[in-house]
Design goal:
Elements (H helix, E strand, L loop, with lengths): L2 H13 L18 E3 L1 H9 L1 H9 L8 H16 L9 H18 L17 H23 L9 E10 L2 E12 L5 E7 L9 H19 L5 E6 L4 E5 L3 H24 L45
Parallel strand pairs: 1-3, 4-5
Antiparallel strand pairs: 2-3, 3-4, 5-6
Length: about 300
């Protein structure tokens, strides 16, 4: 059985109604042939082979201190809004850092190895490095407070899963924060712990946000008024106001990406696309562009079209 047919069968089975679950007049859920998240769609656009390694082969990637710091900062900003408005201070945010880090080591034990000495006890020099690293996260939180005052509003949602099925393609991802005013206007907010991209790379930065805007439009019938990226490394923001016509074009783009993924999956032909990003790729050792050999293409890749939840 080819990968495409296997995916078709599995996704249709998963999303088909169980007998007796729906009343006769209830609309049946649409059949799903595959899924895309902003991260996986962006992977395929930048390098089809990277998409294959992450989504089909499910090859592990070592956590980095930079990426994990972003996860911790996101966790703090999510928890911050659990506090009453008057308590949402920079001191309170920074006080959350140790507990968010500890919880992450429980949920993902492999991240603890980032700050473990040779004997694995996390003492000595590694402990100092952890404290310095947490200090850098505290600086990013300080930059967040320079951009906005969280005591002035309550978000409509945080770490919200949004998804919709369009012509059999499930679009899904997690929104860092969704704000809604009294008129029902939406603002999609995403925290970035890196620096603001140069103008030439703004479109790439907005790809993820347009993805969320499209899903929200298709599920709520409302085009978000603003997409806002908050860059904590250099205390800057990037804002954009989409419109329905643009989101329709973006939807066609996503369908084209999925069609290209299906064609590649039928043959296993996921080609590398070398760029400067290769310097930070965990898979260079197995990439043909650098003399490596990919693992054999799975003949029964039943889950190849299922995107993982969106990473921060």
């Amino acid at each position: 059985m080819c990968a495409t047919n296997a995916t078709l069968m599995m996704d249709v089975m998963v999303d088909s109604p169980v007998a007796g679950e729906h009343a006769p007049d209830d609309p049946l859920p649409p059949a799903v042939v595959g899924s895309l998240s902003p991260s996986r769609a962006a992977d395929f656009k930048s390098c089809p082979l990277l998409y294959r390694f992450r989504t089909i082969d499910r090859l592990p990637e070592a956590p980095s201190r930079v990426a994990v710091r972003g996860t911790v900062v996101h966790g703090v900003l999510e928890r911050l809004f659990d506090l009453p408005r008057a308590e949402r201070t920079i001191e309170a945010a920074r006080a959350l850092l140790p507990s968010v880090w500890e919880q992450l080591t429980v949920d993902e034990p492999e991240v603890a190895a980032l700050f473990a000495d040779g004997d694995g006890d996390g003492s000595g020099e590694a402990a100092e490095e952890l404290n310095t690293w947490l200090g850098s996260a505290a600086e990013l939180l300080g930059n967040y407070f320079a951009l906005e005052d969280p005591a002035r509003f309550d978000p409509a949602a945080r770490e919200q899963l949004v998804e919709v099925v369009v012509d059999g393609l499930r679009l899904r991802g997690y929104v860092d924060r969704l704000d809604e005013n009294a008129d029902g206007e939406l603002r999609v907010v995403d925290y970035k712990t890196g620096a603001t991209p140069r103008e030439a790379f703004e479109a790439k930065a907005l790809f993820q946000m347009k993805f969320y805007a499209l899903v929200l439009w298709r599920t709520r019938g409302v085009v978000p008024r603003q997409l806002r990226l908050m860059y904590l490394a250099d205390t800057d923001t990037l804002s954009y106001a989409p419109d329905a016509e643009e989101l329709m074009r973006f939807e066609r783009t996503l369908k084209a990406i999925w069609a290209a993924i299906e064609r590649a999956a039928e043959t296993g032909d996921f080609r590398p696309s070398p760029s400067r990003l290769c310097e930070w790729c965990d898979h260079r050792v197995r990439c043909p562009a650098f003399g490596g050999t990919p693992p054999p293409y799975p003949t029964e890749a039943a889950h190849w079209g299922e995107a993982r939840p969106d990473e921060p």
